[in-house]
Amino acid sequence: MKLILMIYLILSYQDYYSQSITWLGFISPGGAGSSAEGVSADGQFVVGSSSAPGNQYHAFLWSQRSGMTDLGTLGGHTSYGFDLSDNGNVVVGQSFVSLVSSVIRGFRWTASSGMQSLGTLGGGECSAFAVSADGSSIVGSAQTSNSSSPTHACIWHETLGLIDLGAPTNNSWSEGYCISSNNSIVAGIATFSSVFEHAAIWNQGWVDLGTLGGNDSYASGISEDGSVVVGSSRTSDGYIHAFRWTATTGLQDLGVLASGFSSQAFAVSADGNIIIGWAKNEFGQDRAVRWTISNGIEDLNVTYAGILGDAKLILAKDISPDGRYIVGTAYRNGKSEAYLLDTNPSVIVEQDNSVPDFFELYQNYPNPFNSCTKISWQSPVSRWQTIKLFDLLGREIETITDGYYEAGYHSISYTADSNLPSGVYYYKLSAGSFSDVKKMIIIK
Q: What is the pTM of this model?
């Protein structure tokens, strides 16, 4: 007789994942706040900004393995991380260049070179907002000569440096906020026939994407091939609504939450079908949201209420190419905190008569983790099985599970007690004469 087991599959029966939230913390313990802006393709790396020593904000790179790393500055007191390449090796953002100056420069960061300025187009300032999937191209904006000169969108290449993408007219201005995977299409804003900025794309020239009936709009996300652009526009009644654009449909209003009035879209999956952003709910509260063709707009706080506890996701800023990982800012424990949401759905699969040949306890995922992690194991026999948690000195902390399990593959979600301090812990599987121990790390 076949067993119907709830298991979590990614690549094989040895990898079990399900929906989870990871709180990324702060550069300084007990910091004032942090926010996440970008996520790598595999969800292993996140970029953003966090309060640092001296109550200033610094760009950070967070990894599943190492936690949050302070990327420093270009010499000033503050820096901001905005985006990273698909593999997490290249980070871009902007930083003040001096402790006594307000001049900002875009930067490119790698582990080998550290933070490096991208230079300018002749003016004093430059910003870097996004990097291509392969890390070879960076888009942003820069002053063309002096503080009174118009700002132009620009693209940076390692061998060519900054390239001015110009503007629709001699007296207008532009900014680039995102770039397609083939590095050929840039989306952002530009001024055309009026003083109001419009969402625009650059592909060897600027194209006005229009508005949803109001005066202004801007583009903030682009699909892998550049065929889908998302952003926000003012409507005829003066509210801001998220939009999705294609050359065929033009700007499409993505709407708002029930009884809400405003929304913004920030990023889109590679295929252009999943969009994330922000919206006001019926109480005027900020909520992270997701749009899909099948479900329309949904409040992520409702969809994932079971794993959020008392936290509220107030902003979703980036999504991985496959739509699985979402990062942004939450309100938690009285302050803003960066988060990584793994939306991978648990699936029910039909398993054949075969069962494992031996016991095995798998490494928990994610690890290190902040509040919730998944523990998985396999059992060749049906019997009573127990998993207990111990501290570094071998003292028992709690029993994670204690019950009768059928032969097969099993996975449970473990939420660490809020009173447990950060540190190294061990979890032990016991089943008859078999036992095995794995290490887990809690970071708060």
A: 0.76
